[in-house]
Structures are given as structure tokens and as C-alpha cells.
Amino acid sequence: MHRVQLHYTLSRDAGDALIRNPLPEMLEAVAQQGSISGAARALGLSYRHVWGALKRWEDQLGGELVTWGKGQSAQLSEFGTKLLWAERQAQARLAPQIAALHADLERAFAVAFDDSTHVLTMYASHDDALGALRAHAATPDDCGALHLDIRFTGSVDAIRALNEGRCTLAGFHTLEDPAADSLAARTYRPLLQPGRHKIIGFARRTQGLIVARGNPLGLHTLADVARTGARFVNRPLGTGTRVLLGDLLAMAGLTPEDITGYELNEPSHGAVAQAVAAGAADVGMGIALAAHARGLDFVPLVHERFHLACLKSTLDQPATSALRAVLQTPAWQERMHAMPGYAPMHCGEVLAMSTVLPWWRFSGRKRSAGTRQKP
Description:
Oligomer: single chain
Radius of gyration: 30 Å
Distance between the termini: 66 Å
């Protein structure tokens, strides 16, 4: 079976809304002109080019395309005629879809040629406020538009993607004042380094227990979840919520073995809420917005900070500066205030790492510039 591949080109010249292919164009020219030489002149190509191209296509497609007898004009073979018919049929039937695809591609590439528009790639822990920010930032204003290319992944994977150069910003979250010996500290300390990374403030959000409407099992703490044997649904390894849960269990004197279903996980806050709504689980950790969206109850446990991290070298790039400007607008902060469980917190400000990640506290005198360090 022969398969179709689609290609497109970028040009300053205005084009039509057709998906073009040189073979049908050559076949059309041969049918109209009655000769290879006439087809070449009509297409503005050399005889040798057209002849060679037709022969290559015959070899690739496994059939003769053009026939002619001595003293007769060139004609399309039955196979060539059917190929040309198939092209005309496809163009006629798919014209609306092709035109829509053409328009979508032009709109997408228009961003690349607009100096007032910026594109910023972000890997981030799943967060509904970021989805709202993406829509808000894409609305053009006097300073242009900002297109956020957000890939939702775990907090750990997001920071690794930042360090590997796969994104400009990484979104992750921690308790408001994580202890120096916390799981969060042990997880993020090797990945974030003062002098290399910068932290941009984003939000204060609430995490807690997502439970069925009316909270029928009376779950108000993780100790309640352990005591009742409620069916729990977790988040995957590498996610910020899994790290947060580890710290909360330790603070409550509990272990993963105390939680029924600890090993079961869902990929997002919304998926956790859906598992509870569907009766597949009794409880899960998540954000208030996910619970409210599915008509569930929410038991707040902790406030946390959602951070945006970037490399120091990209802090002043136009796209990063544009995002910081959007984050500091009253319009965005009012929108965040209206989201259940969220509040802007130093939104768009560059923050000292030792303040928001307290394990980065420095003690002792700095070495003088002339002091030699031991090897």
C-alpha cells in the first residue's frame, strides 16, 4: 500500500489553499500539452527534469504513467489517469478542511514573524492556574501576546528539563517553609543551585484531601485516612504532590504502608478527583479547584508555594520578561484570586532562593578572593 505524506513551505508570496504535489501537476501538463516538451515549457522546467521525474515516479509507484506511440502525442496511461482523478477528487472533497489547515498554519507561523509576540516553553507540575495563565497571556494587549508552550510533568522532571535545556521555565511547588531535612529539600537541593538558577514567584495554593460530597468517611487528616483504611489514590513518583505527601506523612508520624492504595496513582489533580467521583477511590491529595470542578468536597491540609524556576542566563530574555510583566498585572492577579484555593504570591517577582527554599542558608565567612582552596 502506498502512503501519503504531507509537506508545506514558507514563503513571502501569497499562496493558495491547496496541498500541492508536483506529480499531478506534471500529469495535468502532459494531458493538456500532449508532449513532455510541451509540459516542461508550461511548467517552466527543463525537458530533462520532467522526463527524469516521471521515470523516478514510475519506479517508485510501480506503474507506467505516460504512453505514446511513434508519431503520436503523449498520453496518460490508465494508471496515470487514475492518479490524476484521485488528486482532483481529494482536492474537491477536502477543500474546506485543507483551507482550514492552511489558515491554522498561517496563524501559527504568524507568531514567528511578529516582533511583539513571544513564545516561552515551560515544563511544570500539573496546575490549573497555569492553564488559565496560558489563555490569559495569549490575549494580545499593547505589548503584544505571549504564547506559553506548557508541558505538564512532575516537578522533578520539570526541573531536569530546565537543566537539560529543554525548556526556559520549570514549575514546581513546596511547603511554604520546608525544613532543611525534608523530603522536598533532599529532592530539589541537588537540582537547584544558587548562582545558576533564579526563582520567580507565582502563587500560594492550598492542597488537601479530595473526598466525596459530604465527606461520608469523616476524613479530616492523613491520620484519619490511615485509621479508616480509606482507599487512597496517589500521584506518580517525581511529582511535587508525591513529595509533599511524603513530608506530610513524616510530620504525622505515618509511613506509606499505613495508607491503603498508596501505590496506586493518577497523572493529574483532575484525574485524582475523577477517581474519587467515580467511586474508584475514597480520597486523594489534590487542589481545591479539581475537587470543586467535579462537585466533590475538599479538606484543606496545607498551603504551599508554586515556584517558577529559570536559569539566571535567561532571566532577562524578552519572553521571560514578558511573562513577568503579565504576572504582575492587576488583571491576572484578580483572576487568580477568583480561583478556589489560589492567591498570587510575589507574582512575577524575582525572589532570593534562600528565602523561598530555606535549606539554602549560607553560614561562615566567604573566602577572600586571594585564598587558595585545597585540591
